[in-house]
Amino acid sequence: MNVSSKTEGDALIVSVHETRIDASVAIQFKDRMREETDDVSGRVILDLSEVDFIDSSGLGAIVAAMKQLGGSHPLELAGLNENVDKVFRLTRMDTVFRIHNSLTDAIAI
Amino acid sequence: MTNPQADIHIELEGTPQEVRNALETLRHKLTAQEFAACNAGVLEIVLAEVLNNVVEHALAGRQDGQIVIACNYSDHCWFVEVRDNGAQMPENKLPDGQMPDLERDLSDMPEGGFGWGLVRSLAQDIDYQRRATGHNRLSFRVPD
């Protein structure tokens, strides 16, 4: 599971360099998110622009990552493609996460 | 086991990695053939949830799980059949597909239970049969 992170202003940007977050990698994703956000101090933006497919297990892993961070470091999302966005909307998870149209928009706030 | 005339025919073993491979094969076939505009993304979401459920429930703890997928496209619609040699659905019926309630505290937010909700949101004419041969047969259609 290839994931990297960098700091931009007050935000930690975690980028997923995989095309899929699915049942076969959900646990690795959760573990990598914990490692990348271990000593986070501000908000966290999850950059999904390289991801073209998630299933409900991948969605669950993103929810788990948000819960790991706790309420003081909200997990925001950016770069959702049409199919990824559809999974968030159909499950109503788009009401739980703050979703930005792009990483540029997310950083500008 | 399935109609060899199927536009797309994929056989796989019942593991998460095989599901991923099968969906990548599906996507490859969808882009390689004339189906690119035929709601391929939605077909992939529905099949992913159906296959994950088969692997996680019907074939749980099994080493000999086999799944066969057939997808036929006609009249602006995908007709899909999925067969497996796993356990019968509980009470011989499909899950109702109610999406989990999200009106709760962050620490109680659900991390699962979305699969059948997605299937029921995106697929139509969903039919389940337990065959006397010990197979499950699920069929549904996905309009484009």
TrEMBL record, chain A:
Residues 21-109 form the STAS domain. It comes from Shimia marina. Belongs to the anti-sigma-factor antagonist family. Gene3D superfamilies: STAS domain. GO terms for molecular function: anti-sigma factor antagonist activity. This is Anti-sigma factor antagonist. PROSITE patterns: STAS.
Automatic annotation (TrEMBL), chain B:
This is Serine/threonine-protein kinase BtrW. Its EC number is 2.7.11.1. Transmembrane segments: none annotated. The gene is btrW. Residues 14-138 form the Histidine kinase/HSP90-like ATPase domain. It comes from Shimia marina. The keyword Metal-binding does not apply. One of its GO terms (molecular function) is protein serine/threonine kinase activity. Keywords: Kinase, Serine/threonine-protein kinase, Transferase. It comes from the Bacteria. It is an enzyme of class 2 (transferase).
